Amino acid sequence: MIFKNTFRLIVSNFSSVWKLLLYYVICIALTVLVCGWFLVPLIRELSAAGVFASIVDFFSQIFSRPVVESAEVLSEIWSNIMEILQANVSLKFNSIFIMAWMLFVLPLTIKMGELACGEVLYGYMTSAVKYGFTGRYIKNFSKSFVFALVSFFVGLIFNILMLTCFYFAVHFFIIGGLNIALAVLCLALLCVLCALKIATFSAWMPSIAVLDLDAFRALRMNFKTIKRNFLSIFSNMLLFIIFAIVFNLVFAVFTATISLFITLPLTAFAFIVARMVAFFFSHGMKFYVYPDMVISPKTFEEQDCISQMKHLI
């Protein structure tokens, strides 16, 4: 039910995808503007060392080379980059600054857009009214900032585990041979961890958008909400992740990655919608999916009563 109603809400609120895309473009433009000052000397040095020529050559022959040989070439490129950074202190500082911005500031700004989307969806789901994304973002700016900041540190363990899985997946791929199977296993574990993180905090943002709680009280409400149907939410989120990977890869292959400019914001919006739908189902709240179609989920108490009645019959 979560999957089907998420799809319905995406269709009826597809204009929000373009707004989210514009917001992501602004976040990325800010990143390029700030990091550009530190990136230019780094690019200049790497270009002079022939790193970019090696990368272009790697991708131009990626399908003609054997997997083991491609892994060796990629390992050589990475070693070359590390040698250049180790030899130049200023370049090392530049790379650390860029990495810190990419791992902390950029995710923080992107996360801040979630609450605005949540409130836009809340307006539609409860009264079939479409609120403006910009107005909701400005209205909840401070609340969004606190939510994004707290969620970064609360989810840090999950993020570290996911980055570790990704690192070992790349590491085993570079080694090649039979280790490719271990790389696939690491990627599978990465998907499971990602689904586990989303499911664990799936009711956090909706608790702020729907119940108007602050970030800390909403976190407590999150755990109260998910404890009765966690496995259902987790399985749905894992299904969403697998579908999203296939969906993005298929469109990327057939459009030479151009479609990712639309499919990635669409995917991000889909996960926001899925969390809102799961929250409404958990609390037995009626909601619109179309202007003329209302979903009326049963509360857990009603489900328990029905289950007991069936048992008695």
Structure description:
This protein has 313 residues and is mainly alpha-helical. Residues 304-313 have low confidence and may be disordered. It is globular and about 60 Å long. The chain has one domain (2-155, 201-312). 23% of the residues are buried. It contains 14 helices and two strands. Strands 1-2 form a two-stranded antiparallel sheet. The longest helix has 39 residues, at 89-127. 83% of the residues lie in helices and 2% in strands.
Order of strands across the biggest sheet? 1-2
Number of strands: 2
List the quaternary state of the chains.
single chain
Spell out the helices and strands N to C. Answer: HHHHHHHHHHHHHEEH
The largest sheet is: 2 strands, antiparallel
Percent of residues in helices:
over 70%
Summing up helix and strand content along with how strands pair, one would put the structural category as mainly alpha
Query: Number of helix segments?
Result: 14
Query: pLDDT below 50 for ≥5 consecutive residues: which ranges?
Result: 304-313
Q: What percentage of amino acids are in beta strands?
A: under 5%
User: What's the rounded overall pLDDT mean?
Assistant: 85
How large is the radius of gyration?
Answer: 22 Å
Using the alpha-carbon principal axes, give the shape: globular
Q: How many structural domains can be distinguished in the coordinates?
A: 1
Distance between the termini: 27 Å
Sequence-ordered SSE layout with sheet pairings:
Layout: H1 2-12, H2 15-48, H3 51-60, H4 67-87, H5 89-127, H6 133-139, H7 141-154, H8 156-175, H9 179-200, H10 204-211, H11 215-226, H12 230-254, H13 260-282, E1 287-290, E2 293-295, H14 300-312
Antiparallel strand pairs: 1-2
Helix pairs in contact: 1-13, 2-5, 2-13, 3-4, 4-5, 5-6, 5-7, 5-10, 5-13, 8-9, 9-12, 10-11, 12-13
